[in-house]
Backbone:
């Protein structure tokens, strides 16, 4: 049976890579005694695939992976068993059982939302009011051009169409929802780059923190739903 697991990554573990996260869950699943399925052949490995890999220096409340299990008890028991043998900074939050025809988590992702919080290192360079006001102005415009880099090239790109929503929260943080599909995958750092370019300043990645809130799929009506919505509790 195929299980979709939601997990959280917090605190100091924002500095470990996606490859380290994969190894962590593989070892944790064995240590917790969960009955995961393995591939057949000379070098069997766990049947597990991750959605939307998270970059370094980012925390998250809404990460996912799909895995096949030979048997399960309940979602609550699975979560408790895994978390009892792992780190409090990287733990399972929930799980659902998927139908046989469910799209895998990597292909299903269409959007993600984030909270961008600026720390006191920004003082002396820009004020928080300047940053938040510029964020509002950019979101109200039709064109937000930034240098978007890929492995092979870099180009001046208008990212406005990929910004689904943007709000200022508590007069200090930027909430932003971005496209995260295979065609138009935007990183929240690009929006901060756009703010910096508009103000004529440089904003180091060490001057702000990013926390992913949730990872979404889209239904037939274009609504954004949690990846857990594809399955059922057990």
Residues:
């Amino acid at each position: 049976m195929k299980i979709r697991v939601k997990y959280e990554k917090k605190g100091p573990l924002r500095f470990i890579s996606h490859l380290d996260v994969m190894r962590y869950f593989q070892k944790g699943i064995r240590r917790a005694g969960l009955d995961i399925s393995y591939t057949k052949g000379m070098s069997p490995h766990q049947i597990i695939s991750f959605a939307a890999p998270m970059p370094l220096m980012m925390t998250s409340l809404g990460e996912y992976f799909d895995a096949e299990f030979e048997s399960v008890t309940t979602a609550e028991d699975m979560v408790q068993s895994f978390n009892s043998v792992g780190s409090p900074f990287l733990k399972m939050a929930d799980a659902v059982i998927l139908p046989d025809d469910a799209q895998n988590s990597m292909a299903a992702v269409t959007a993600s939302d984030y909270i961008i919080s600026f720390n006191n290192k920004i003082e002396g360079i820009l004020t928080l009011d300047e940053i938040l006001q510029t964020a509002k102005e950019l979101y109200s415009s039709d064109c937000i051009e930034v240098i978007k880099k890929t492995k092979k090239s870099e180009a001046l790109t208008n990212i406005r169409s990929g910004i689904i929503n943007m709000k200022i929260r508590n007069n200090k943080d930027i909430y932003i929802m971005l496209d995260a599909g295979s065609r138009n995958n935007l990183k929240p750092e690009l929006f901060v780059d756009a703010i910096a370019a508009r103000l004529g300043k440089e904003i180091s990645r060490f001057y702000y923190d990013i926390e992913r809130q949730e990872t979404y799929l889209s239904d037939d009506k274009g609504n954004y739903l949690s990846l857990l919505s594809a399955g059922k509790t057990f």
